[in-house]
UniProtKB/TrEMBL annotation:
InterPro entries: Glutathione-S-Trfase_C-like (IPR010987), Glutathione-S-Trfase_C_sf (IPR036282), Glutathione_S-Trfase (IPR040079), Glutathione_S-Trfase_N (IPR004045), GST_C (IPR004046), Thioredoxin-like_sf (IPR036249). It holds the Pfam family GST_N. Residues 102-223 form the GST C-terminal domain. Residues 14-95 form the GST N-terminal domain. PANTHER family: GLUTATHIONE S TRANSFERASE D10, ISOFORM A-RELATED (PTHR43969:SF9). One of its GO terms (molecular function) is glutathione transferase activity. It comes from Magallana gigas. This is Glutathione S-transferase 1. GO terms for biological process: glutathione metabolic process. Homodimer.
Amino acid sequence: MGNGASSSGVKRKRVPTLYIYGLSAPARAAWMTAKAAEIPVRLKYIDLFKGEHKTPEFAKINPDMTVPTLVDGDFTLWESRPIMQYMVSKWGGKHSYLYPTDLQKRAICDRLMNFDLGSVYKTVTEFTYPQLFQGKPPDPDKEAAMKKAFEYLNRNLDGGQRYMTGDDLTIVDISMATNISLTEIKGYMMDKWPDLAMWYRRMKALPYWAECNKGLYEWKTPQ
């Protein structure tokens, strides 16, 4: 029987597989992108704390042994940002605004996705991870670096726009919001950055936020 064919002979649309871990901000971002773009995915959970990403079976899929990982037929991709870009570019359809096809709008998304990786994700994880996983107290220097990133984002939203690139939600917002959500576990407040705080509340009001970020809040509960 040919690939994707059912027993009735009707060809079915192939559903990609997305490997995630619930606490991982990048994995949550990839899942949220699939939800936002109404892209069906088959979720497979990899428990990082149990070392499931280091098994020989998963290493054959992704030799870097990281999540998220996307498998689309015989094509495998990892790292959240290219996964998000790939999914919307291939299957986004009416939701292509999430990663615009217009070259200039896409360039703005790419610029902010790079800022997210090099500044938002970097500073948030450097501030929160030692507290979450090593029981260390907050590091003032790491917090100061994170604050600079938050100040930049607050200025970016200062014009009254709803989202980071304008009035349309994009993968930039999704990636940044899942990263910033890590600060919630320790009850970090963003009152100093009112535009950023309003944007974050808007992101949390998305209909799929609770489902895709369940792993974050399950981690938060026993703290």
